[in-house]
Amino acid sequence: MRIAILVEGKTETAFKPHLVKYLETRLEGRMPRLDFVPHHGRIPTEGKLRRVVENLLQPGKSQADDVIALTDVYTGITMFPTAQAAKDKMRAWVGDEPRFHPHVALHDFEAWLLPYWDRIKELTGSNRQRSPWPHPERVNHGNSPAYRLAEVFSAGPKTKTDGYIKTRDAGRILKDQDLAVAIGVCPELKSFVNTILTLGGAKPL
After folding, report:
1. I need a labelling partner for 58 at 20 to 30 A (CA). Which of 8, 119, 130, 163 fits?
2. What region does 137 belong to: left with phi over 0, alpha with psi -120 to 50, or beta?
3. pLDDT digits (tens, 9 = 90+) for 71-115
4. CB under 8 Å, gap of 24 or more: what pairs does 151-157 form?
5. How many other CB atoms are found less than 10 A from the CB of residue 112?
6. Nearest C-alpha neighbor of 172 from the set 129, 133, 124
7. What is the dihedral of CA 91, 92, 95, 101, to 10 degrees?
8. Which letter, b or e, does each residue of 23-55 get, where b requires 16 or more Cβ atoms within 10 Å of its Cβ?
């Protein structure tokens, strides 16, 4: 089974091995092939998204069995005021295609990194003793998770010179971490994981 996952860029692609590692413990012998398809900034919208999905589902050697679209709710503009609005819009753009599954990172992918506060402290040298984000997906448009993470990396004595670099630091934060920690406090991440588990024939969390 092949699942194509539309993502915004390289940061989400860095997430793939950690996602696969988690899923393999629950989909032993049934693990689908996950093909991340980055779109360098934002996934397509409107008719272009529909055409991308149709092409991925088209019969042929590289046909996907299902397509998941994973967009940030915070995209730099106010296209998606809420997570549900983002999913509803993607569904409307693609149409009545049961093999298409819209999902979001609320408000951006970095929300799924914030639960790993001990690891962030280790990398940055931050002296904050407790995580200031008990509910990472509630960190919103006004000061998105990516901005919050950038602030910590910029202020940390170990990282003042170069700050937070998405394509480098996402993987460093997740290294040797249990994805279940983020799933437990990030409902949209849990929903995304449950879609893959269900498509793979496993029980959702």
Report:
1. 8
2. alpha
3. 988 765 567 888 999 999 999 999 999 999 999 998 889 999 999
4. 152/120, 152/124, 152/126, 152/128, 153/123, 153/124, 155/124, 155/126, 156/123, 156/124, 156/125, 156/126, 157/124, 157/125
5. 29
6. 124
7. 0
8. beebbeeebbebebbebeeebbeeeebbebbee
Note the pLDDT of residue 92: 98
Q: How many residues does the chain have?
A: 205
The tokens for 155 are 């202020």
Rounded CA separation 1/73 (Å): 28
Neighbours of 135 (CB within 10 A): 12
Task: With beta carbons less than 8 A apart as the criterion, state whether 191 and 103 touch.
Answer: yes
Q: Provide the phi-psi class of 192: left if phi over 0, else alpha when psi is between -120 and 50, else beta.
A: alpha
- Residue that has been written with the tokens 């008719």 in this structure: 47
